From TrEMBL, chain A:
Keywords: Cytoplasm, Exosome, Nucleus, RNA-binding, rRNA processing
Domain Exoribonuclease phosphorolytic: 31-163, 190-260
Family: Belongs to the RNase PH family.
Localization in the cell: Cytoplasm; Nucleus, Nucleolus
Primary location: cytoplasm
UniProt xrefs under InterPro entries: ExoRNase_PH_dom1, ExoRNase_PH_dom2, ExoRNase_PH_dom2_sf, Exosome_comp_Rrp42_subfam, PNPase/RNase_PH_dom_sf, Ribosomal_Su5_D2-typ_SF, Rrp45
Name the record gives this protein: Exosome complex component RRP45
GO biological process, one term: U1 snRNA 3'-end processing
SUPFAM superfamilies assigned to the protein according to its UniProt record, in alphabetical order: Ribonuclease PH domain 2-like (SSF55666), Ribosomal protein S5 domain 2-like (SSF54211)
GO cellular component: cytoplasmic exosome (RNase complex); nuclear exosome (RNase complex); nucleolus
Any one GO molecular function term: mRNA 3'-UTR AU-rich region binding
UniProtKB/TrEMBL annotation, chain B:
Name under which the protein is recorded: Ribosomal RNA-processing protein 40
GO molecular function, one term: RNA binding
Family, per entry: Belongs to the RRP40 family.
Listed InterPro entries: Exosome_RNA_bind1/RRP40/RRP4 (IPR026699), KH_dom_type_1 (IPR004088), KH_dom_type_1_sf (IPR036612), NA-bd_OB-fold (IPR012340), RRP40_KH-I (IPR049469), Rrp40_N_euk (IPR041054), Rrp40_S1 (IPR037319)
Domain Exosome complex exonuclease Rrp40 N-terminal residues, every copy: 17-63
Domain K Homology as annotated: residue spans: 152-199
Amino acid sequence: MRPPSPSIPEKEFLFSALKESLRIDGRLPLEMRTPNLTFGSELGWVECALGKTRVLAQIDAKMVKPLPERPFEGILTIHSEISPMASSEYEPGRPSDEEVTITRMLDKVLRRSDALDKESLCILAGQRVWHIRLTLHFLADSGNLLDCACLAGIVALKHFRRPDVEVVGDEVTVHRPTERAPVPLAIHHTPFCFTFAFFPESSSSSTPPVLDPSQLEQRLSAGLVSIALNAQKEICVLQKLGGVPLGTDDILRLVEVAVQKARETHEFVEARLREDWLGRKVEVR
Amino acid sequence: MSVVFPGDYVPAQHVNLKLGPGLLQTSSIKSENTDSNVIATRAGILNHSANRSKWWIESNSRRYVPAAQELVIGSIIQKVGEGFRVDIGAAHPASLDSLAFEGATKRNKPNLKVGCLVYARVSLAHKDMEPELECFDAQTRKSEGFGELKGGFVVRCSLKMCRDLLDPKHFLLPLLGGRFPLEAAVGVNGRVWVSAKETKQTIAIARCIEAADPDGGSLDAEAVKDFLNTLDI
């Protein structure tokens, strides 16, 4: 069942509020909800919440034989399926358009952006590599699942530590976490995704774009622009959905905002990871 | 006050027993240490009336399950022949006959468009059938506030929150009404329609409901008052 579109009074109220640069949840147009990261007892278990949107990311690593065409590279796979747990508008089995978009964007932001150094996952060339499996569970949808999922995914990758391995000749020894400290994954850079929503132009006045749209804003938007970039101002993905015409300077303005937010998010994530790491008692003998 | 879990036996016995939400009468007693045949079907706080004839369970949830005679806010999703299909946030859309309005006749039918909001009463809720709505009071056949809701905004909240808002002793609506004039229609399906003169005021109502929601901030009267003072209204 397709979700019913928002009612006329909701639509009219949202548009008239946005014309006054007011948002229903009291945010400024270019203000994000503060992300809330919760780490589990296991490494690589992260729950990310943006307001009431919640995504859980979890990482497993296992050893596999590498793909024959890439014998020196490890494998990263992303499993994301939106279940009806997130919202009644998602059905199990049949992916909706929105779900397909999210899956493809996650693939671009987390995998194809080369955030993870895949060669460092190689143990024995052509025989043994690490297979990192990132599973994303969408717990609740209250708008902007994509940004929340990207953040949960990248933080989980940074949080995870794989067991240390030792290679002597052809012998591979995997050290248990109790023997040797697990090693973090080699991460080249940390891309974050930011989504902006655009609203249909009316003749009288223009509506500003909003960052981190809520569910209602996302449903009523005429177009979405997602920018994935890292704190070093390197853009990984820029995606535009919907038919709102945008000029070059509009896009550049959004990129400026995203750069600022990426820096803030980067600092926040680093601080939270450090805090969590210090809170863990890791004993190395 | 006691907390029950689904499957727990509830000591509800009365010659004229009435079971409310969350309770189910079973045909046989399956447990030895109780002589009750009433079990709980959801987790929550068990309540009963003073003479122990009416029993119900109070709990919070987000998904609405229609029950007869409840007030709901729905949006029209389709026009079907002589009526409308209305989304009330339940698993199935409800149907609303175009004659189920005050003063409606075959000639004079309400003109509702797809996307309009209606305040209605659930007239039929059967687990095997589509719920049905009516937009008049069953006794007086007058509209009594039911019908189309024009303008305003719909706030979504948890089911506990909207039941609380219907309680005349609840602090929130009188507190907000003391600051500025407002109109509100509370549906027990987790939707509250509010309307105030200024956009800012409507947003303030929406944020206060969100803040007081047990599923959200669950602030009490004092905290909501402080929160309201921080808003620029």
